[in-house]
Predict the 3D structure of the following.
Amino acid sequence: MTVTFDGAPKADHINFGVGQPSMDLLPVELIKKASDGFLAQAQSAEINYGPLKGDARTLEALANFLSSHYETSVHQDNLMLTGGNSQALDFLSSQLITTGDVVFVEEPSYFLAFQIFKDHGAKLVGIPVDDEGINIEFLESALAYQKPKLLYTIPCFHNPCGHTLTVKRRERLVELAKRHDFIVVADEPYHLLRYQENSPPPMGDFWQDDVVISMGSFSKILAPGMRLGWLQTSPNILKQLLSSGVLNSGGSFNHFGGHIIRHAMSGELLEQHLRHTKAALAERVDAMDEALHQHMSDLCSWRKPKGGYFFWLQLAAGIDTRDLRKVAIEHKTGFQPGPVFSSNQGLENFLRLSFAHYGCDEIETGVQRLATALRKHVAGS
Amino acid sequence: MTVTFDGAPKADHINFGVGQPSMDLLPVELIKKASDGFLAQAQSAEINYGPLKGDARTLEALANFLSSHYETSVHQDNLMLTGGNSQALDFLSSQLITTGDVVFVEEPSYFLAFQIFKDHGAKLVGIPVDDEGINIEFLESALAYQKPKLLYTIPCFHNPCGHTLTVKRRERLVELAKRHDFIVVADEPYHLLRYQENSPPPMGDFWQDDVVISMGSFSKILAPGMRLGWLQTSPNILKQLLSSGVLNSGGSFNHFGGHIIRHAMSGELLEQHLRHTKAALAERVDAMDEALHQHMSDLCSWRKPKGGYFFWLQLAAGIDTRDLRKVAIEHKTGFQPGPVFSSNQGLENFLRLSFAHYGCDEIETGVQRLATALRKHVAGS
């Protein structure tokens, strides 16, 4: 979001609209160590154009890292490196859709993904989600009269809703993709950020069905500024992607950054940081859940997320969270109103809170401020 | 090109088809020093999402660096960072063209740019070039019956032809772009690699006309694997580009790499390396020109380039350089045949040689091999 990159929130505001890690979770020392490890042995070829899929050693380290965290093993033949999930989604849009193509998106979903698809001329069709993920019955109905090229889903710790797509629905989604000949693009940056019991394997685990592309990223488990991520998919789909002009012209999307993160993965650096990050975020989930119970339970409903970054709050019908946001800003807090996540400007009485950008004390204070703003707004409207 | 990234040429071949710097021109020590300089003082924000245009200090350092090398001064308000010119061209295609749009390209031109435009559904129309650059009369004729969205040009030390667009033609090109409402996308990775007298300012110097986007890159003056480049254009066009989904979602395309190159620009590191690179490449131009005169002057014609990476050779009509290439490979050498640079599979009797990927002795040996292959091919055909 422009507001967060180009205009940081005011220092005395607690803006839960910011879906970024807090500064204390950005590991400058780790990056220094990993860079030193790489640069101490760096070769000329490592600052030349990189292999299209990414450096083989980086892919191997990534496959090992993912295999150690997933229930199932990951093979490097199913992986390629990207410049993070935003770049990956833009790349997939360039390669897989043409102007006028239909893209199915979840309703609600990550609003900047909408913008990326629109930049490529796609027509968006929203498919509702519920607590188990995308609604398969509604999807089947929509498929009866529209043919999407892609379906974009956030299957694990959804943005903004926080839910995880059930295993049964994953299987049905893949069946439908095969039957109706569309690609499932699964955006899974939060997959490794689980704070409770295990979640299903990532959608990339369905690579053998030849209709799924899973996007993973180091942005939320290491550092967004490194701009490194990966795709997990079938060799067939990889082959198509590797024929792209941009890759053949420029080589691997982030060759240099890949070497640094290879060193972070090969030692224990990334592993330790991931443990630290999960522990810190797990405390923040609890802090936000408790603060909501204490200050706002009469005003809204929510489900405590089991991972990821976000709480999704439902307010009373009739409240427009776009208006509420103005009041919240007066009270030095903030959030993302529901309609920004809607492909058709709906969801007025919902809002998204991120618990990743602030520590527990600030979360408590911010929720207090939000409750005050909401009571004032309700009283005034 | 896939062949060079994923399958390096055999060790005993001298393949002039490779348009990459030689390994000895890739400055690992410089990158180490610049990384150390950055990381010694790095802050958390510097590994978070970056500002959409790029870090302000990096843009200021870039403006100063460019101003010190150009005849005219460059202001950071006209700059934004990219992930190198391939990424930049893909980004501009996403933002500025939709499926079915017409893009004018030079005939011949950089073949992987064609692929990038085609990936975005563009229809390519070739406009011939001559020793002074794109043929303006032909362009005017083409504009009478077709309306391009973009015109893609390599104005300085052209790939593959080596020529530089004259100042007079630059002015006429910009006039035509204003009159016919198209954007000139100028690919200028070789602009700072001049080995003789000064060349005109880059096309970015026409930013105030609001129809020109110039793409510059660190790939050819520092290291391709860093994946950092820049756009120079008008505030109006920048504003449009900065509204893109991919930037607003992921932040600056290469925040981390940008900090390292900022340090390389702020000290003398990049300056020294550029001097070294130019001196080395100037010797190689001379070596290739001399070898061509010695071994092939009766078989082809060429103009000695004043900068960049490439010689463009014209052979006798009737020779198909795609066939010649097979003979060349048998003789352990190589080049890029003319038709790959043509938007309509023409230019059969032309070929491109890069002098950047080998030292002077290898250039002499490789040209000898090529001459032998050509004589054999001519005798046998």
In short: The longest helix of chain A spans residues 269-296. Chain A touches chain B through 73 residues (CB under 8 Å). Chain A is about 40% helix and 15% strand.
